[in-house]
Amino acid sequence: MLKNYIKIAWRNLVKEKGYTAINIASLAIGVGVFLFMLLLYQYATNYDSFYKEGDRIYRVIDHVHTRDGSEVNTAKTPWKWGPALKEQFPGVENYVRFLIRGKSITYQNDTFNIAVSYVDSSFFDVFQLPLRLGDPQTALAGTGKAVLSPAIAKMLFGNKNPMGRVIQIEKKSYEVTGVLKKIPPNSSIDYDLLVSASNIGTQEMASIDNWEKHDIYT
Predict the structure, then answer these.
(1) 73 Cβ neighbours under 8 A, 6+ residues apart
(2) Could you identify which of 23, 82, 150, 214 might form a hypothetical disulfide with 95, taking C-beta atoms 3.0 to 4.6 angstroms apart as the criterion?
(3) Quick one: pLDDT band at residue 7, thresholds 50, 70, 90?
């Protein structure tokens, strides 16, 4: 009986080729759109979910009243906010700030423009990102140390071991002390090249170290 049903269905499909093609194409498109939306939903809802204890990490948003009377929410905050929040709010256990600047990076005879993130020494305490190479307790301790993403390490050094090699950031020497493991693409922060905030120059620190300059992610 089932065999007869299959034969009848097949004959009808062959007989109405145009109608069959339209239905199959419509079904394929529908399934494709559904799968795409499902993957997009999973990608969006899992944003930053790879962080250990990520439910305890919050990005500070500043609600700004502009001079023309409008209101704007911005993820950039003043430099002073991090320590002030920890000091005044008992619920704040720790903080880490990001000052991101495009910098000229040189290794041997090659020069690249890379986004450098100047971060507090608490970076690995808050985000607990795994390192492929290096020790998170010391990788960003002090000046003149740099932690690279796998992509930047590959771009600068190819297949060579980057640990201990020296790069120039705006003509200042930095030793490579760590390489991150690959970060999922659904991260709200890019970690191309990390250095300690203690490396921020005097002139730039004078520019950002006030209550009105919105230049930092906290």
Answers:
(1) 61, 62, 63, 64
(2) 82
(3) low
- For residues 186 and 45, the answer to whether their CB atoms sit within 8 Å is no
SS3 145: strand
Per-position DSSP letters for 157-215, written without gaps between them: HTTS--TT-EEEETTEEEEEEEEEPPPPS--SS--SEEEEGGGS-HHHHHHH-SSS---
If phi over 0 gives left and psi between -120 and 50 gives alpha, with beta otherwise, what is residue 155? alpha
SS (H, E, C) 29-77: HHHHHHHHHHHHHHHHHCCCCCCCCHHHCCCCCEEEECCCCCEEEECEE
Pairing mode, strands 166-169 and 98-107: antiparallel
Contacts of 217 (CB under 8 A, 6+ apart): 59, 75, 76, 77, 97, 98, 100, 189
How confident is residue 8, by pLDDT bands cut at 50, 70 and 90?
low
Which amino acid is residue 111, in one-letter code?
A: T
Q: What is the pLDDT of residues 20-62, one digit of tens each?
A: 677 777 878 888 888 888 888 777 777 778 788 888 999 999 8
Q: What is the C-alpha to C-alpha distance for residues 41 and 23, in angstroms, rounded to an integer?
A: 27
Contact assessment for residue 174 and residue 167, using Cβ atoms and an 8 Å cutoff: yes
Closest by CA to 150, choosing from 111, 119, 193, 101, is 193
